[in-house]
Design goal:
- The protein has a single domain, classed as Alpha/Beta hydrolase fold, catalytic domain (Rossmann fold, 3-Layer(aba) Sandwich), CATH 3.40.50.1820.
- It is built from 13 helices and twelve strands.
- The mean pLDDT is 94.
- Strand 9 and strand 10 form a beta hairpin.
- It has an eight-stranded mixed beta sheet with strand order 1-2-4-3-5-6-11-12, with helices on both faces.
- By secondary structure, it is of the alpha/beta class.
Amino acid sequence: MLAGIEAYHAHPYRRSLRDPPVVWRAGTTRLLDFGARRRAREDMTPVLFVPSLINRSYILDLSRRRSLLRHLASRGLRPFLVDWGAPGEDERRFTLDDYILRRLAPALDTVIATAGRPPVLVGYCMGGLLALALALGRARDLRGLALLATPWDFHADDATVPRLLATMGPWLDALAAEGALFPVDLLQAMFTWAEPALVADKFRAFARLDPESRAAEDFVALEDWLNDGVPLAGAVARACIVGWYGENTPANGAWRVAGEPVRPEALALPALVVVPGRDRIVPPASAAALAEAIPGALRHDPRAGHVGMIVGGAARRALWGPLGDWLAARG
């Protein structure tokens, strides 16, 4: 394991992809247009991607070989990506409502104005919950909603750990009151705590790779992304950890945005729900509950993990192709 860690630190790979044009920004949030350099046409279906607030958005554009967004652009779609960035002074006291109403809603308006037509909305992980809330209020401005590994019933698998996390409530209340941030190191520790043996296993496996191989480069690209997380605004951390995880507010109907309950059964849009069968971050049962709740939702179950379906060796077959086909059909 130690040999693998040393080899990782010594590896020369550094991500060098240039970002596509920024078409809108507010605070630390940017909107990137992945179709702008492909001579955007009016018949290109725009797609607005909403990633998690916890990890950097470039997991969807990890490297030249592992970029879901560049792949979709090569198919004639026009992907736009919400890049949250780390919370700045404007976002330190943000709530989930603020991110949805003051960031996502204007980003959607910009996509419509730039592309000249309503987009399909795609949310990944935590971003799927934000996308769902936006879609329920803006269905007329969208052509569909795809939710990738999006949790819904946080107690569907085992409620023990979620309820344990909820005991952090008093500390999180203090963070929110002070406008402080939930530290990224603690977020990383929480994910590691879920399955600590995975860290040792992956570095032992990396130690056996040829450092000049593509597999080694892909490992370093992904590991760099994993170590490049961002903190959360205190109020957002409390809503996610105590509300979503501890109290299971989405599944029990208690999660509200702008005073309105977020009810997937009220969604009036074509919907695709992707439930990766090997997901260790979002248990399949949690994401499957969302597929069952949305009327007429198409469900896709790739044999892949939470991140593997996005950037893994089988990602083209597991997700890129099926998602691209579904998005193209919305045009």
